Write the structure tokens for this entry.
Amino acid sequence: MRNDIKEILFTTEQIEEKAAQLAKELEVDYAGKKPILLGLLKGSIPFIGDLMKHMNMPIQIEFMDVSSYHGGTTSSGQVKILKDLDISVENRHIIIVEDIVDTGFTLTKVIALLKHRGAASVEVVTMLDKPEGRVVEMEPKYIGFTIPKAFVVGYGLDYDEYYRNLPYVGILKEEVYMK
Ligand code: PRP
Ligand code: MN
Ligand code: MG
């Protein structure tokens, strides 16, 4: 798998350090609030694991599976809920956990839904932010690293469902997705 990677952007050590740092920030900001860490499947899996082990406080973890189709030229991204929550979010503080924010469609949809359902607060923690990809306005409150517009994989991020298990974030070689 390493052969398919052009360049490593963030090493395991850098990612783990960043996750621990973000966890400590969340610990302070959410003291006494018993927040729900809401991971969006499947990309958030490694990050939610790293985050939660550094949060020394009562938290709940939940998951949703949401898929977005970025086809076409319009700015109306279609987002489908594939697996919904089976708990109430009413009056709860929600921290959405993401591997990456790109167009912003996925989060826009999920945030609106959670607010509609009466969440007390909704914020986003993402390991990677790709602001150049943004189509709808979306500013995650907690960001690990800001990245340029490149095809990145690893640490939850896939190409055609593979590479999620790489313990680092890297740029995929063009020849891999051109063939
Ligand atoms: C990817 C990524 C984010 C989302 C970001 O998920 O994990 O959830 O896209 O893109 P956006 O800001 O343009 O909406 P994807 O829908 O590919 O599912 P996955 O997590 O299972 O890979
Ligand atoms: Mn995802
Ligand atoms: Mg994906």
About this structure: The chain has a mean pLDDT of 95. DSSP finds four helices and nine strands in the chain.
